Amino acid sequence: MANISDVARLAGVSPMTVSRVINHSGHVKEETRLRVLRAMKELNYVPNDLARSLVRRRTDTLALIVPDITNPFFTTVARGTEDTARKNDFRVVLCNSDEDPAKELEYIRMCVSIRVDGVIIAAAGDGSRKNLELLDSFEIPYVLVDRKVDGVQADVVTGDSRMGAFQLVKHLIDLGHRDIAMITGFLTTSTARERRDGYRRALEEHGIPFREAWVKETSYMRNMDFTLVEQLLDCTPRPTAIFAANNFLAVQVIRGLRHRGLRVPEDMAVVCFDDVDPYSLVEPFLTVASQPAYNFGTIATQLLIERIEHGEGPAPSPRSIVLQPEVIIRKSSGH
Predict the structure, then answer these.
(1) Where is each HTH lacI-type domain found (predicted)?
(2) CATH top class, domain 4-47
(3) Do 61-159+293-324 and 161-291+327-333 come out as alike in CATH topology?
(4) Local structure of 43: helix, strand or coil
(5) Helix, strand, or coil here: 97?
(6) Three-class secondary structure assignment of 270-298
(7) What angle do CA 182, 187, 189 make, to 5 degrees?
(8) Contact 141/149 with Cβ under 8 angstroms?
């Protein structure tokens, strides 16, 4: 396997000159640079990234930690993250936490071990605060995406969950519904709390009592507890509409309703946060508060790169970017 000395010998330059070409540092004549690049190609020489990173104190690597990459929302966030990272000569390592703080901590320890330059994270929940303190202790910058973490001061890119929830529930109320239930993620997650707040505000502003028993908590993941739908259907009076706090929950709610022989929207209206791509493009069905997921990824990555490349002087104060959802009316709400 060729090394830097072999490249220098073939190109007729010093190893230092080869190093400057590889690291884009110092002044090298264009003719010399091309000669070095030809020698590298002829010898199939691949620079040692680890050695380079030790010298530069940079690995040009970012980590993206999300709860579940199979969720179309986070798939699109990841696409935005990678596109922006590549435009700025960074690579991205993708990690799934499964909303498990212990698994999330394993990945954060890995980030420290492989010396990533920064982390974008959709935190598992409020328990992530201790995990993020590990990044702070190693001075690894990070940006929160989609979810805030209580007590953590950092750049954050979120959607307006309260407003999106308020608008969805108001739409149901405008259609004549007054018995509206909600299935949300665990309230240790900021988006679950904010969407519950928006749901409650819409009810109360329209003179409809908030029923704690009609708000059910479960995982945002695919493995929703079907008994929650059963519990709501056994209530007296029975809800006429269900607000699901994310796309996976909406799909599981519809499955649970079908199991009981109920039709959407004829027997039960359903609305939710985020589309269920790619099916939403083929046969639009769910009424949703659609968030610009790609922009979540691009903006979070740009904020992180700005932190990484910040020069001397005090770091800027944490920035908060709030993106507005768009309510799209489709069949599942009845109109």
Answers:
(1) 2-56
(2) mainly alpha
(3) yes
(4) coil
(5) coil
(6) EEEECCCCCHHHHCCCCEEEECCHHHHHH
(7) 115
(8) no
**Domain spans in the chain, listed from the N-terminal domain onward:** 4-47, 61-159+293-324, 161-291+327-333
**CA angle 129–183–332, rounded 5-degree value:** 130
Question: In this predicted model, what pLDDT tens digit does every residue of 146-176 receive, in sequence order?
Answer: 999 999 999 999 999 999 999 999 999 999 9
Bridge partners for 322 per DSSP: 158
Closest by CA position to 180, among listed 203, 198, 201? 203
Summarize pLDDT for 77-91 with one digit per residue, the tens: 999 999 999 999 999
Structure tokens at 104: 């999330």
pLDDT, position 222: 79
* Whole-number Å distance between alpha carbons of 249 and 243: 9
Do residues 76 and 134 lie in contact, with contact meaning Cβ atoms separated by under 8 Å? Answer: no
In this structure, which amino acid lies at residue 276? V
What predicted TM-score, i.e. pTM, was given to this entire model? Answer: 0.84
Q: Give the CATH superfamily of 61-159+293-324.
A: Response regulator (3.40.50.2300)
Six token digits for residue 55: 């010298």
Closest listed residue to residue 68, CA positions, set 108, 115, 105, 100 = 100
User: Which CA distances in Å does 89 have to 29, 54, 83, 293?
Assistant: 23, 17, 10, 22
Which value, to the nearest 10 degrees, does the dihedral of the CA atoms of residues 258, 251, 329, 71 take?
-170
Q: What kind of fold does domain 161-291+327-333 have according to CATH?
A: Rossmann fold (3.40.50)
